[in-house]
Design brief:
three-stranded antiparallel beta sheet; 10 strands; globular
Length: about 325
C-alpha cells in the first residue's frame, strides 16, 4: 500500500505556494483518509494518507464547487493537484471554515437545536441536485469539475446497503442474536417498509454528515460550514441523516422541511430504516476502533444510540415507528 509522505519539506513547499511560511503550518485533527494541516490562519491543507484514498480527494475536488453553487455552506477549493506533479504528493488546499466541530459541543444539547435546523436546510439545498443525464455522463471526460452537475458523472451510486432481512437472518445463523430477536427485528423492518417509497429518486448526498464534519461558531450557535466531502454519492437522501445521533434528527428534519415545504412523506421511517440497518451491520463486524472520534466507531454505538433515543420519549411520529401497538392504533 503506497503511503504519501508528509515531510516538513513537502509541507513547506505547499505552504510557500500560497505565501505561507513553514512555521505557520500546524496539524489539525486527522480523519481516516487524510492528514490535515492549517496553513496560516485562512487555509487548510488535506493530503491523503495513502494511494487508496486519492479517489475520494479527486471526488471532493469535483463535488465541492457544485455544492457551493447550490448554496451549501462549505469551504472553497483554492488549489488541487491529484497527479503528484507539483510536490510529489496529491493535495488539496481549501479556504478555512471557522468554528469548532460538534463533537466538542455535544450535538444533543438543547442549545444546538438551531444549528441542527441549519444543517437540515443545507442538506435540502444539496439534495435538489440529481444525477446527470446519460448524455452528460458520456461527455464526462470533457466536463469541467467546477461547472455543472455533469462534472459529477463519476460520483458513485449507493444502493443503500445490504438487505436488512437477509442481514438479520445471518446474525441469527451466526449466533450474534437469538431467533426471537431476529423475528422481532424482521417485524420492525416489515412495519417500516410499509412507509417507504418504492424507488426514492437519488440525490447528491454528502455521505458523512456527522458531528466531526459540522463546524459551529460556538459563541453564536451558528453553523460555520460542512466539511469533508470524500463520501459523497448519489443515493437516497435519507441516508444523509443516518450518521448523526438519532436525537439530532428531529431538529434537522424541521430545518429540512423549511426548505422543502412539500417535503417527501415518511422521512422519519426512511431515516430510522438506515439507522437500524446500519446498527445491525456494525454488530456483524464488531471490531473496536479505540481513539476514533466518530460516535459510531464503537461496535455497539449505533444500537445504544437507538436505545437512548427511544428511551427519551421522542416526539411523534417516532414512537409509533418503533411500537407495534402504537402503530396499530394510529
Amino acid at each position: 500500500m503506497a503511503e504519501y509522505e508528509t515531510s516538513d519539506e513537502t509541507l513547506a513547499a505547499i505552504a510557500a505556494r500560497h505565501g505561507v511560511a513553514a512555521e505557520q503550518v500546524r496539524p489539525l485533527p486527522e480523519g481516516v483518509a487524510n492528514r490535515v494541516f492549517l496553513l496560516g490562519d485562512d487555509l487548510v491543507l488535506r493530503i491523503p494518507r495513502a494511494e487508496r484514498f486519492l479517489p475520494d480527494l479527486v471526488k471532493e475536488a469535483a463535488v465541492i464547487p457544485v455544492a457551493l453553487r447550490a448554496g451549501v455552506r462549505t469551504a472553497e477549493v483554492v488549489a488541487f493537484d491529484g497527479t503528484c506533479s507539483e510536490v510529489g504528493v496529491p493535495y488539496m488546499v481549501l479556504t478555512r471554515t471557522r468554528g469548532v466541530d460538534l463533537t466538542r459541543l455535544d450535538p444533543r444539547s438543547a442549545g444546538l437545536a438551531g444549528v441542527l435546523r441549519q444543517v437540515g436546510r443545507e442538506l435540502a439545498k444539496l439534495h435538489r441536485l440529481s444525477p446527470p443525464a446519460p448524455s452528460a455522463r458520456l461527455g464526462h471526460a470533457a466536463a469541467s469539475a467546477s461547472s455543472t452537475p455533469s462534472a459529477l458523472a463519476a460520483v458513485p451510486v449507493d444502493d443503500g446497503g445490504a438487505d436488512p432481512w437477509a442481514l438479520t437472518g445471518r446474525l441469527v445463523e451466526e449466533g450474534w442474536i437469538d431467533a426471537e430477536a431476529g423475528r422481532w427485528l424482521g417485524g420492525w423492518f416489515d412495519r417500516l417498509s410499509a412507509h417507504l417509497p418504492a424507488n426514492p429518486p437519488p440525490a447528491l448526498i454528502h455521505g458523512d454528515i456527522a458531528p466531526q464534519n459540522l463546524l459551529v461558531h460556538s459563541g453564536t450557535a451558528r453553523l460555520g460550514g460542512i466539511v469533508d466531502w470524500g463520501d459523497a454519492a448519489w443515493a437516497d437522501p435519507a441516508a444523509d441523516f443516518a450518521k448523526m445521533p438519532l436525537e439530532c434528527v428531529p431538529a434537522m428534519l424541521d430545518g429540512y422541511r423549511e426548505e422543502t415545504p412539500a417535503g417527501a412523506p415518511a422521512w422519519e421511517a426512511r431515516v430510522l430504516w438506515f439507522h437500524l440497518a446500519w446498527a445491525l451491520g456494525r454488530l456483524a463486524a464488531p471490531v473496536p476502533r479505540p481513539g476514533e472520534r466518530h460516535w459510531t466507531a464503537p461496535p455497539a454505538g449505533r444500537l445504544l444510540g437507538l436505545l437512548r433515543f427511544f428511551a427519551s420519549s421522542p416526539p411523534a411520529p417516532w414512537a409509533e415507528l418503533a411500537c407495534p401497538a402504537a402503530s396499530a392504533q394510529a
